[in-house]
Amino acid sequence: MPATKMIVIRHGETTWNLEGKYQGHADSPLTKRGLAQAHAVGKRMKKMPFDVLYSSDLTRAHRTAQCIATETARDIVLDPRLRERNLGIFQGMCREEFIAKYPEIYAQYQADLLHYVIPQGESMQQCYQRCVDCFAEIAQRHAGQTVVAVTHGGILANLLKHTFQIPLESPRNFHVWNASLNIFSYDRGQWSLERWGDCCHEEKFEHEDGADF
C-alpha cells in the first residue's frame, strides 16, 4: 500500500484561546487574527496540491477549513472524530475557575490523568484512541494521496505523541501553533513526521495583503 501524506492543520486563533479558556466540544469564534490566519493558510494550500479536505465539525475548525475550501475549490468532509477532547463540565472555564468550582473532581482528574472520565466528557485515553483510529482510517482510505485535515491542538498533540511513542500522560513540552501546517506520512501502519509548526504563510500573506495578524 503506497504511503499517505497527511497535512494536519490547527484552527485559527479563537477568543477563548486568548482568554485561556478550555474549549473542548464547546466553541468560540475566530478572532480577527484567527480569521486572517485561516485566510492565509487557505492561500498557502492553494499552492500545495492535495486530494481531499477533512475537518472537525466544530465551528472554529470548520471556519478555518472553509477558507481553504474557498481558495482550492475543494469540498469539505466533516468528521466529528477530529473534534477536540470533550472536556465536559470544564468547558468554557479557565483552569483556576474549575479548580475553584470543582475541587474534588479536579483532584480525581489529577490523580488519574489518563483514564479519568470528566463528567459529561471523555478521558484522555478515549480521546487519544478516537484520534489515532480516525487518522489511520483516513490514511488507509486515501493511500498514496495527500490529505488535509483541519483539527485542534489536543488532537495534533495526540498524533505527535503517537508518532514518537511519547507516553500520553507526559507533559506537553512542545507547542501547537494556531493555523500551523504539520505534515505526517503514513506508510504500512507507521507514522513519521516530516514537518512541524510551519506558520511561514502568516508572514508571507501579511506582507502581500496588509492583513493585521
Describe it.
The protein is α/β, with parallel strands linked by helices. The protein has one domain (4-209): Phosphoglycerate mutase-like (Rossmann fold, 3-Layer(aba) Sandwich), CATH 3.40.50. The chain contains eight helices and six strands; from the N terminus they run βααβαβαααβαββα. It has helices at residues 15-19, 32-46, 59-72, 95-101, 103-111, 124-141, 153-164, 200-209; strands at 4-10, 52-55, 76-78, 146-151, 181-187, 190-198. It has a six-stranded mixed β-sheet. β5 and β6 form a beta hairpin. α2 runs parallel beside α3, α4 (95-101) packs across α5 and α6 (124-141) crosses α7 (153-164). The model is unreliable at 205-213 (pLDDT under 50).
Strand content: 15-25%
CATH architecture descriptor? 3-Layer(aba) Sandwich
Distance between the termini: 41 Å
Low-confidence stretches: 205-213
Total strands: the figure is 6
Look at the structure and name the CATH superfamily: Phosphoglycerate mutase-like
DSSP summary: helix tally: 8
CATH class: Alpha Beta
CATH topology: Rossmann fold
Which structural class matches the secondary elements? alpha/beta
Q: How is the largest sheet built, in terms of strand order?
A: 3-2-4-1-5-6
Radius of gyration: 17 Å
Query: What string gives the helices and strands in order?
Result: EHHEHEHHHEHEEH
Based on CA inertia axes, which overall geometry fits?
Answer: globular
Largest sheet descriptor: 6 strands, mixed
Q: Helix proportion of residues, in percent?
A: 40-55%
**Average of the residue pLDDT scores:** 93
Count of discrete domains: 1
SSE diagram, text form:
Layout: E1 4-10, H1 15-19, H2 32-46, E2 52-55, H3 59-72, E3 76-78, H4 95-101, H5 103-111, H6 124-141, E4 146-151, H7 153-164, E5 181-187, E6 190-198, H8 200-209
Parallel strand pairs: 1-4, 2-3, 2-4
Antiparallel strand pairs: 1-5, 5-6
